[in-house]
Amino acid sequence: MIGMSSSWLATKGYNIRSSVEKIFDLDFDLVELGAAHKYEPKAMQIVKLLKKQHPDKKFTVHTLFPPLEEFFMFNIADTKAFDKNIRALKTLFQVGKIVDAEVIGIHGGYKRELEWGESHFGFTKFKFGEKIDDSEARRNVERVLEVALSLAEKNGIKLCVETDAAGGEDGCMV
């Protein structure tokens, strides 16, 4: 099955509801609820309504959905982001349960702190900051993944950890 991420339409100014509706209008049967949307205070209600209106459609959910009021850089290797990462994961799986997602995807951990970078085509690329000690980064990744796997098992949803070699050795995923 081929689907489309709502993030692409979010970068074009579409809100959650209109991006999902547009994707279904394009005859896709699967939507990845993506992280590029602006904050919407009623995002959970919108998601419930979309699932109710489209019970035959499939959804996956991607890191930091629903959009946060105060955005942060999701990095499961970073000690400073640990508590925010866990809160984000719990919300991510709540959404996954609502839409009956088969898969939830998150980014793996970078061995460097992440900072805001340039925007390209509506997506903000991050840049690498201070190095995180390898053993600390690995410990953090293991702790976050333990929680994520527990949530996945509890909710009957598969967990996907995306990898990205674009950062090279300095920013490689753990």
UniProtKB/TrEMBL annotation:
InterPro entries referenced in this protein's UniProt entry, alphabetically: Xyl_isomerase-like_sf, Xyl_isomerase-like_TIM-brl
Limits of the Xylose isomerase-like TIM barrel domain: 21-165
Pfam families on file: AP_endonuc_2
SUPFAM superfamilies named in the record: Xylose isomerase-like
Protein name as it appears in the record: Xylose isomerase-like TIM barrel domain-containing protein
